[in-house]
Design brief:
The complex is a heterodimer of chains A (about 350) and B (about 325). By secondary structure, chain A is an alpha/beta fold. Chain A contains eleven helices and 15 strands. Chain A has helices at about 20-30, 45-55, 65-70, 85-95, 110-120, 135-145, 170, 175-180, 180-195, 285-300, 310-330; strands spanning about 10-15, 35-40, 60, 75, 95-100, 125, 150-160, 200-210, 220-225, 230-235, 245-255, 255-260, 270, 275-280, 330-335. In chain A, α5 packs antiparallel against α11. The longest helix of chain A is centred in the C-terminal third of the chain and has 20 residues, at about 310-330. Chain A is globular, with a radius of gyration of 20 Å. By secondary structure, chain B is an alpha/beta fold. Helices cover about 35% and strands about 20% of the residues of chain B. In chain B, the strands form three sheets. Chain B has a seven-stranded mixed beta sheet with strand order 12-11-7-10-9-8-15. A six-stranded parallel beta sheet of chain B has the order 3-2-1-4-5-6, sandwiched between helices. In chain B, strands 13-14 form a two-stranded antiparallel ribbon. In chain B, α5 links the parallel β5 (about 95) and β6. Chain B is globular and about 55 Å long. Classes of the chains: A alpha/beta (about 350), B alpha/beta (about 325). Chains A and B meet through β7, β8, β9, β10 and β11 of A and β7, β8, β9, β10 and β11 of B.
Chain lengths: ~350, ~325
């Protein structure tokens, strides 16, 4: 295993060429002078070839082959959640550092396997809980830490996106593959709230699967009790039509003040297309850029990654507790004693 | 039927001032005659009587006997509604009662019996059934534009109202008692269904000097499966530019509605001090009282009955019970 790749270019292979890779990770990596996107991997080699042309990389249909040929410093894994374990372990076995999309896995045991194997092999692992690099969430964390709202008491977080059209029909609808909207989407807010408020003690959740061919909840809300006594409401939905822009809302009421932010009323830019509305605040370095940059720096300088596997596992555990509560209709205490999916 | 004679029983609840202004407006339209006010607080009584130029009574029984109003608006402290409502019913006087209609189901059930026995019109002041935004939402839902309702996420945030709202004996509780019933009622109205199970959590407290809870998160399952939530917290600090909100995100199988009923405001930032705001939406109090008059004149059923008042109260009480049991609570209680 290489430590501290030094001043040369960092070689990166991107595995899984879906929405997040095409829209965020690949464009971010391309902007980094010290990064070489040497390979891209997709089970569909024609798709890999097309993406490879766009990024000056070599296309592969197998992760093993890409790693053997490219000998990358880092693999960025953005495959479907149910493939994370296999893809992560493959990379780790080859001694390659991994940036893994969230959620880390769907099962705690699988998360432990990845974390432990990475430790054993001396491989760096970071999971993409991107809110820890997202401007308004970073600012919120900073304000709370500085005591600007006193002690946090009650928080609310929403995250709504219309059915992931690029993949929903294939895997998001399947509980065994995606975990549903709370595990897949609300895990962002859960991770952020854990970052700000500390560990969660108990979860109660309700949700709905809605469609006959769907086993995964497409709507879910959860009430969280934190160890420090604070409470939070987390609301996740894939049930908004594509005419509604991606929406996030966050408020935290504390003993000395209230903090509120959402992505729409603060959007610096609003774009209305025929069947899509996009609202966002463009920044030169967005959360996706910054999280990858942070991980690449930690690989180059041999530092502990900003978001460890253990942190990602804890956030996963809270979302799984929500799923368990949804299934069993009762409050669920942490830690979980058995798998939920 | 000519002009209806109205009296207001107590100005303890801050809404009384708004209702009184509406009565004065309706007087100009020759719809009503606002004749008298009652209050057990002498100073408040004097202030109200002088503000509206009406007769004052420190004994509500006497007011009912002497003035013989056609209808009363009951805006006393929550726990005091019951005796005034029962007195009005006994004398055949119609009642518009502030929410929550009572602090216990026993009182609410006694009100229902008195209303049924006397045949008076009893309207619960679920003013949110009269806001243009929520009325339009009802129409959109009923015409099927968003398909079947799957989930409703809602807030009724506010500042701490002060006064007796922090007194558990008079208010019957804190933020849950004050701020659950409007949203619970809208959910019942929109889903045409009843709550089946309630679970709640809270942390005491944002304001450590309060005896009652000033925050809570409540989740509800309705009989036919709709899942819903209410954040009833008085989580807005005094410096917040508006009093609070009534917000509902309604997820349907075919669409999504966002109700943000009091979002229509202009921000005013003074050169110093906190920002304030000016609301420019419709005044649902006016529509509600006007419809109450119509219900009396046309012998119709109120849009929100005493039974609706009771059912919403039951959801709030179930939330308290859930906090006590630390478990989901089945309805009916």
């Amino acid at each position: 295993m290489k430590r501290g790749v030094g001043l040369g270019k960092v070689k990166v292979v991107v595995h899984g060429l879906g929405f997040i890779a095409l829209n965020h990770h690949l464009p971010s990596l391309k902007r980094m002078d010290d990064v070489e996107i040497s390979g891209v991997v997709s089970r569909n080699i024609e798709h890999a070839k097309k993406v490879a042309r766009d990024y000056g990389a070599r296309p592969y249909s197998s992760l093993e082959e890409a790693i053997e040929k490219e000998k990358p410093d880092i693999v960025v894994i953005c495959t479907e959640t149910f493939r994370h374990k296999g893809d992560a372990l493959t990379s780790i076995e080859y001694g390659v550092n991994i940036f893994l999309e969230k959620p880390i896995t769907l099962r705690l045991k699988d998360a432990d396997d990845i974390i432990n194997t990475a430790k054993k092999k001396g491989v760096k692992l970071m999971v993409g809980h991107v809110l820890r690099f997202w401007p308004e969430y970073v600012a919120t964390k900073d304000m709370v830490d500085k005591g600007e709202i006193g002690n946090p008491v009650v928080a609310r977080a929403y995250r709504y996106v219309s059915f992931p059209p690029w993949s929903f029909k294939r895997w998001h609808k399947d509980l065994e593959k995606s975990g549903g909207v709370f595990v897949d989407l609300s895990i962002h807010d859960v991770d952020f709230l854990r970052w700000v408020l500390g560990e969660v003690e108990e979860v109660f959740a309700r949700g709905a699967t809605v469609y006959e061919d769907t086993t995964a909840p497409v709507y879910m809300h959860a009430l969280l009790k934190f160890k420090n006594g604070a409470i939070a409401y987390v609301d996740g939905s894939w049930l908004i039509p594509p005419t509604h822009p991606f929406y996030t809302y966050l408020e935290i009421a504390g003993t000395r003040g209230l903090l509120v932010v959402d992505n729409l009323t603060t959007a610096g830019l609003r774009v209305y297309l025929k069947d899509e509305v996009r609202c966002w605040t463009p920044v030169p370095r967005d959360g996706y850029y910054l999280e990858l940059r942070s991980f690449i720096n930690s690989v180059k300088k041999d530092l502990e990654p900003a978001i460890t596997g253990e942190e990602a596992r804890k956030s996963l555990e809270v979302t799984l507790a929500a799923l368990k509560s949804f299934k069993e209709n009762r409050p669920v205490k942490l830690p979980l004693e058995e798998e939920v999916i | 039927m000519g002009k209806l004679k109205f009296a207001i029983l107590s100005f303890a609840h801050i809404h009384a001032w708004s209702y009184a202004s509406v009565l004065k407006d309706l007087e100009k339209e020759n719809e009503v005659e606002f004749v008298a006010v009652y209050d057990d607080d002498p100073e408040r009584l004097k202030k109200a009587a002088e503000a509206y130029g009406v007769k004052q009574y420190s004994d509500y029984i006497r007011l009912l006997e002497v003035e013989k109003p056609d209808a009363v608006i009951v805006t006393s402290e929550n726990a005091k509604h019951i005796s005034q409502v029962l007195a009005a019913c006994e004398k055949g006087i119609h009642v518009l009662c502030e929410k929550p209609i009572a602090t216990t189901l026993k009182d609410a059930d006694e009100m229902i019996r008195a209303v049924e026995k006397s045949g008076v019109k009893f309207q619960t002041a679920f003013v949110m059934r009269y806001h243009e935004v929520t009325v339009e939402t009802k129409r959109i839902i009923d015409e099927g534009s968003i398909g079947e309702i799957v989930a409703i996420t809602s807030t009724n945030h506010g500042k701490y109202p002060g006064l007796w709202f922090g007194d558990p004996d008079l208010a019957g509780g804190g933020a849950i008692m004050d701020h659950t019933v409007h949203n619970a009622d809208l959910m019942r109205w929109y889903t045409k269904d009843e709550a089946k199970e309630v679970y709640a959590i809270y942390k005491k407290n944002i304001r450590d000097y309060l005896k009652v809870e000033d925050n809570a998160l409540i989740t509800i399952r309705f009989k036919k499966g709709v899942v819903a939530s209410i954040d009833c917290s008085w989580s807005r600090p005094d410096s917040w530019p508006i009093w609070g909100d009534v917000y509902l995100g309604i997820f349907g199988t075919e669409g999504y509605i966002v109700v943000d009923a009091f979002r229509s405001f202009i921000i005013l930032a003074p050169d110093k001090g906190a920002m304030t705001s000016r609301y420019f939406g419709t005044n649902p109090d006016y529509e509600m009282i006007k419809d109450f008059i119509r219900v009396i004149k046309e012998d119709d059923t109120p849009r929100a009955t005493v039974y609706d008042g009771r059912q919403a109260l039951e959801i709030a009480l179930a939330a308290y019970k859930s906090l006590e049991k630390k478990a989901p609570v089945e309805l009916p209680l």
